[in-house]
Amino acid sequence: MTTAPAILRKALLVAVASYLIMGISGCRRGAKNLNANLSPSAGSESESERSRHEQSLIDQGKEFYKNDQDEQAVAAFQEAIRLNPDLAEAHLRLGMAYAALERKPEADESYKKAVELFKKRVQADPKDAESFFHLGEAHSFLHQDEEAARAYRQATHLKADDEEVFYQLGKAETKLAHYPEAVAAFQKALELDPNDSRASDGLENAQEGAQRIKEGKKHAEEMLKKQQANANGNGNTNSNSSARPTPKRPPSNP
């Protein structure tokens, strides 16, 4: 026969067991909620890591391109674009690598995509000097010199201490035969970096171009004056020849 103390002990054990089970379940639910609260941070960290990986691929491709390993550069840029098709710089660099491999159709397609994406970026952020510079590069590679000069010009307004931007602007202005503007751009580039031999050569070419334009205008003005003088001379000659001669008076009879 079960005694009262034995029954009491059994009841106490059941109560303790129930309490422990409920406590463990509560802890598990708490852990689950804690994981749920942490999951957004984990997602953000993953996004950050993905961005770093994409930039790492672009940097690797640039290094391959610099070392004339153009096939490897293409592969790196393509992988970056596969991860994120909206990477404007990856499209630009891919076009450059294709051009080095003399694959012009693929290069032009990449440049056009870069133009599209960089335009979106500068529309979203009109103070993004780097995107304006890269937009100028993409236009330049497509031989769209007016658009390239416009983008470079905007980049110089936003980043007035960047020598490379002024150098590229000088090149674009030279292609357009805007020699005074090219001279000013190259002079600014040399002011920022006096040792840039490219800017020195560009300045010399632009100054020669400006001189040719000046001489050409002077020659054209001289030719115009000569033509006007000849026209006036011919007009006077024709006027004199068209005048009726005075008839001779017949001799009088004696």
Q: Which secondary structure elements does this structure contain, and how are they paired or packed?
A:
Layout: H1 4-66, H2 70-83, H3 88-100, H4 104-124, H5 129-141, H6 145-158, H7 163-175, H8 179-192, H9 197-242
Helix pairs in contact: 1-2, 1-3, 2-3, 3-4, 4-5, 5-6, 6-7, 7-8, 7-9, 8-9
Features:
254 residues, mainly alpha, Serine Threonine Protein Phosphatase 5, Tetratricopeptide repeat, 83% helix
The major beta sheet can be summarized as:
none
CATH topology of the domain at 160-231: Serine Threonine Protein Phosphatase 5, Tetratricopeptide repeat
The CATH homologous superfamily of the domain at 160-231 is termed Tetratricopeptide repeat domain
Outline, from the CA principal axes? elongated
β-strand number: 0
Output the radius of gyration: 40 Å
Helix proportion of residues, in percent? over 70%
Distance between the termini: 196 Å
* Poorly predicted runs of 5 or more residues: 1-5, 19-42
Q: Strand share of the residues? A: under 5%
Q: Give the CATH class of the domain at 160-231.
A: Mainly Alpha
Global mean pLDDT: 83
* Contiguous helical run count: 9
Which CATH-level-2 architecture of the domain at 160-231? Alpha Horseshoe
Spell out the helices and strands N to C: HHHHHHHHH
Structural class: mainly alpha
